[in-house]
Amino acid sequence: MSHEVTDEMTARMAWARLAEPTDSVALGLIDHFGYVDAFEIAARGGVSPSGKRVDRFAARLEHLDLARDREICGRLGARTLLPGDPEWPDALGDLDVPPWCLWVRGPLPLNDVPRRSVAVVGARASTPYGNHVAAEIASGAGARGFTVVSGAAFGIDAAAHRAALAMETPTVAVLAGGVDRPYPTAHSDLIEQIARTGAVVSEVPPGSSPTRPRFLARNRLIAALATGTVVVEAGLRSGSLRTLRDASGIGRPVGAVPGPVTSMASAGCHYAVREENAVLVTDAAEVVDLLGEIGGDDLAPRRRGPERPEDQLEPLPHLVWSTLAPFRSKTVEELTVQAGLSAREVLGALGDLQSRGMAELRLDGWGRA
After folding, report:
1. Tens digits of per-residue pLDDT, 39-63?
2. Domains of the chain by range and CATH?
């Protein structure tokens, strides 16, 4: 049905139906001939730049019906975005292989998302610890004005989305199938909630099934749509590490949450910190510090132990205070020997400590107050 393809807009939509998002043959044709001419070559089984006959798209060409796709989008309340549209996220241009077009459900303007957002991703077989941390990061970052981006999968993705929804924070779900094909199906209600207040996004047309290559391809979209990516839990072969690498490859900051060193669910996070230059983060404040504006309110507070009265002491009084015992009195002579100070220095320090309420003179000597 090549007659349906008359301009770059329709050609992009047609290619999204004909080829997988990162298909090298399709990308080569488009790069060499442009969208419209490349489609005509594919439609008539022409020859690629390398001299090979292009016939791999024949089966899908028989089912191409852009009018039907537009009608399905109308029923869903979905919109199709193309580069140049006001809502198109320019950040997708950072990818080596940007999407040809996007299908979107939900009121959230997609072009606003990359400005201040965090991709929270991780293991499907997550632990209660991982779910708790993912929810804390999503809700805490959301409270500071961050949109939460993830993939609506089981485990960490779902924990992040649900926390964002509970906080009434915008959240974006990037799917590996069509925007009308919730996956996993157990998350149909969750994805519908996201579509009502945020955005559900896909680069494959409505009706498309989620497949493993599409899951791998959609990871790069999650990485590009967010300001940065945080992996909460991940095994050593987790697809979440692919998202982290995609983000790092286009210059986005990346973080990883540590877990028990005995937990295989966190082994990928530890590897990311050790080998992938991921920054170790433990809570929402540190995530905002990593992804937010330099200086100002986005800086995480410096972590310190609890303040103690002895922290304010000068060196000599601190040495004498350390020598005093809480439950046994010591004479000045004992203190001079144990502290290695003169009697004058010890007495001066004891006076300082007594004025602070940190030392007391007893009948048999000095002790901690």
Report:
1. 998 888 777 676 667 788 888 888 8
2. 2-64 (no CATH), 90-298 (3.40.50.450), 309-368 (1.10.10.10)
